[in-house]
Write a structure and sequence with these properties.
The chain has 11 helices and 8 strands. The protein is α/β, with parallel strands linked by helices and 274 residues long. The protein has one domain: LmbE-like (Rossmann fold, 3-Layer(aba) Sandwich). It has an 8-stranded mixed β-sheet, with helices on both faces. α5 packs across α6, α7 packs antiparallel against α8 and α9 packs antiparallel against α11.
Length: 274
């Protein structure tokens, strides 16, 4: 019995050590841990700009806390309807996937408490080939109307996952903010927060693409709670992508979001002058 107890204890200790090590791969200890990125930056109007339905899963914590904790107005633009995505599981005819994912994006936005959102009609996996100047102008037009204090998007050089649509949306969003600041700094967004992937995790488990992401993004300036329960709920809302985490990372969403329990951002703040 003593031997069995020792063996069980050793196994439990080994599993606990492995879990602790694995959890550390999702940390960025130099980033400033804050309860809310929008709150610490005193943003009262937040605009998230992404490429696909379900991209907002990356910033669930920021959007939820900006609304519920800080009383900010929250809005989102999704550039595509996600019609080229792989269904996991299959929930609809593939030719109807754009309609389904459009609806999933709207349901997700409602669950996040967004005040307004738009889903545009750029081609999924084809944003990089779209008219870039038109894309930037459309973003500038929405920013001129909504006048967000804080814009949230992808880091252009890595796109969180090295996806060309992500990188193009990050680039276009940054250019839109820069151009507004050069002409009307008094009404331009004051801050851009770029969502980043945990670098250790991406470099060790993300393969060649993950290593590119880790080497092409800056160190995060801020970290905040990721609202794991809301992220798990989000995958239920995005029913056509419900098994995405399991299929890509080899683990259930409930487990990944418990260990990957923070969101990381590189924050770029501007002065009042262009």
């Amino acid at each position: 019995m003593r031997i069995v107890t020792l063996i069980v204890g050793a196994v439990v200790a080994l599993l606990a050590a492995a879990l602790f090590w694995f959890d550390r791969q999702f940390e960025e200890p130099e980033a400033e841990l804050v309860p809310s990125v929008a709150g610490v930056l005193e943003a009262k109007s937040v605009l998230a700009v992404f490429a696909h339905p379900d991209d907002e899963q990356l910033v669930t914590g920021l959007l939820l806390r900006a609304k519920s904790r800080d009383g900010a107005i929250t809005r989102m633009i999704t550039a595509t309807k996600g019609e080229a995505g792989k269904q996991t599981p299959i929930v609809a005819r593939q030719e109807d996937l754009g309609v389904v994912r459009h609806a999933e994006a709207l349901k997700s936005g409602f669950a996040l408490g967004l005040d307004e959102q738009e889903v545009w009609d750029y081609p999924d996996s084809g944003v990089a080939d779209a008219d870039y100047e038109e894309l930037v102008r459309r973003l500038m037009d929405r920013m001129a109307i909504w006048q967000p204090d804080l814009v949230v998007t992808f880091w252009p050089e890595s796109g969180f996952s090295n996806h060309p649509d992500h990188m193009r949306m990050g680039q276009a969003t940054r250019d839109a903010v820069y151009r507004i600041r050069s002409t009307s700094p008094e009404t331009a967004p004051a801050i851009i927060a770029y969502v980043l992937a945990p670098r250790l995790m991406m470099s060790r488990f993300g393969g060649e693409s993950g290593q590119l992401v880790a080497s092409n993004q800056p160190a995060p300036t801020h970290a905040m709670p990721g609202e794991a329960d809301a992220k798990i709920r989000g995958w239920e809302i995005h029913a056509s992508q419900r098994n995405y985490v399991r299929d890509v990372y080899g683990m259930p969403a409930w487990f990944l979001h418990r260990v990957n329990d923070k969101e990381f951002y590189y924050v770029e703040e501007f002065s009042d002058q262009p």
